[in-house]
Amino acid sequence: MARIVKQAAERRDEILDAAGRLFVTRGYEATTIADLLEAVGIARGTLYHHFRSKEEVLDALIRRHGDRMLEGLRGVVASPLPPTQKFMAGIAAMSPQDPEQAALIDALGRSADTALFAKSLEDLMQRMAPVIAEVVHEGVATGEMRTAHPLEATRILLAATHALLDNPALAWSAEQRTAQFAALLDAAERLLGTEPGAFAAIAAVPGDHS
After folding, report:
1. What is the pLDDT of residues 60-87, one digit of tens each?
2. At what angle do helices 129-142 and 54-77 cross, to 10 degrees?
3. Would you give the DSSP letter of residue 126?
4. Do 38 and 140 lie in a common domain?
């Protein structure tokens, strides 16, 4: 039984890997079930054993991306960094860590299907925000941060970052992205009640894969 489960998991990952490549090269809307079957070399029944539709494949891809982000986030939360540094390290950890993943997120973001953006935002709010909010609670306890709403403030900042910096549909220039990020840092200091300039040393702009 254990061997069957392992084989099923491997096949599922194989399908997701192929789907990710197709979504990057052809686009989500243009990719068909037939394309996916050909890329993996499987029968339609095998695909439907794992996923009932292309939309379900997409949901699983987003979930897998979120799982990888969560792994990085939990490592940051467990680190000995001060809360202000830990918070920004957590934001950085949510950006794709390899070119292939970055290309997939970029391709999905450019899709005409606005539901894609909503799905990724929902995952961000429901799974990522509570983990980063743990850092804000820690910051409040140590006095580095002052807010009565750690989770809500975190969600506001993540939603703003996602909408402004992680949304490929917004074709910001490098200068515009830098300005947006500076404004987000200022907003983060105000929302989280840190000392002015607490985040000023953070130079990398999340979501910048150029």
Report:
1. 988 888 888 888 889 999 999 999 999 9
2. 20
3. I
4. no
